[in-house]
Specification:
Helix content is 48%, strand content 15%. The chain has 212 residues and is an alpha/beta fold.
Length: 212
Amino acid sequence: MKLILLGPPGVGKGTQAWKLSEKYGIPQISTGDMLRGAIQNGTELGLKARSYMDSGKLVPDEVVIGIVEERLAMSDCAGGWILDGFPRTLQQAGALDVMLYKNNSGIEHVLSLEVREDDVVKRLSGRRSCEGCQKTYNIYFNLPKTEGVCDSCGGRLIQRKDDEEATVRNRMMVYRESTEPLISYYKERGTLKSVAANGDIDAVFDLICSML
């Protein structure tokens, strides 16, 4: 099975990808995992990516695409894979199609996990993280026993800068501009399935499995 997960930040792509990986015995591959793996393995593309990351710049599409091709050629991907966080743009999607075509392969399913923007903002802007053990809570639906204090280690709970509401809404705007067009791209190719991801984790997972 060759599967792509699409969706805005905070929709739960990583969690669902991990559960699908466990169920179907195929690797969950995220952009971050691929970049870290290429850098750790010291590949030519990994070294290129590192030079951009170390200077705080975005890694160019051509480098990311090359790293994806390296990763998908590894033996653990022979039976399929789950892409989480790639492709992010139409250019990356087109490059992935060419890459798979060269190997007489193709994408079987593209799942678009969908949640209302206000719900995403509530999930992320309500998140509080422990300074000590990194355990996370949410002021709307997963409160600690004592306000501002971690249940596990007693550490102080903080809101990370990238979880502030203004930052979250900006991330949503970037998603709409660069990644949302992929929904139309894959819909035209007949591979897209929309998943209502408002429910709890297990309910959403069961829905995905029934669709697959």
